[in-house]
Design goal:
The protein is built from five helices and no strands. It is mainly α. The longest helix has 32 residues. It is elongated, with a radius of gyration of 17 Å. The chain starts with a helix and ends in an 11-residue tail after the last helix. The C terminus is likely disordered.
Length: 141
């Protein structure tokens, strides 16, 4: 893995994690008082999708990651590993929950969407790399 790929993966993770942390605080402190937990969690997802898109685009351009599948997927997979590691260690520790209790307490619909968002998070550096890609004939592909 190239230095630029590692830096982009770290930066991408950091931006998305920070935004998710802030949104999580807002959700827990305010939003769940006005909506049921499922609705509050699902309301976060469109915002996080925008954050993921913007962070991926910024990271791959800022660190000049080549618009090739392998390095872009490496950025996303590194960020995903970091996200899951932090989510299932630090966050669970802060909440004082064992993993089994955390998973059991999750709403199945919101958790399914969360898992889908993790997949999108991992793939977004590749997706933004394809945007505006020129085919050999000079047209956009």
């Amino acid at each position: 893995m190239r230095d630029a790929t590692i830096k982009a993966g770290l930066a991408y993770f950091a931006v998305v994690f920070a935004a998710g942390f802030v949104l999580g605080v807002v959700r827990e402190a305010w939003l769940i008082r006005h909506l049921e937990r499922r609705s509050a969690e699902l309301a976060e997802m469109p915002v996080m999708l925008v954050v993921i898109f913007l962070a991926a685009r910024w990271a791959v351009h800022r660190f000049a990651v080549p618009a090739l599948a392998a390095p872009r997927l490496q950025v996303g997979l590194l960020a995903l590993v970091l996200m899951v590691t932090v989510e299932f260690s630090v966050v669970l520790w802060l909440r004082g929950l064992p993993l089994a209790q955390y998973l059991h307490a999750r709403d199945p619909v919101a958790f399914a969407v969360y898992l889908s968002m993790l997949a999108v998070f991992a793939l977004m550096p590749l997706i933004v790399g394809r945007r505006g890609h020129r085919s050999p004939g000079g047209t956009h592909g």
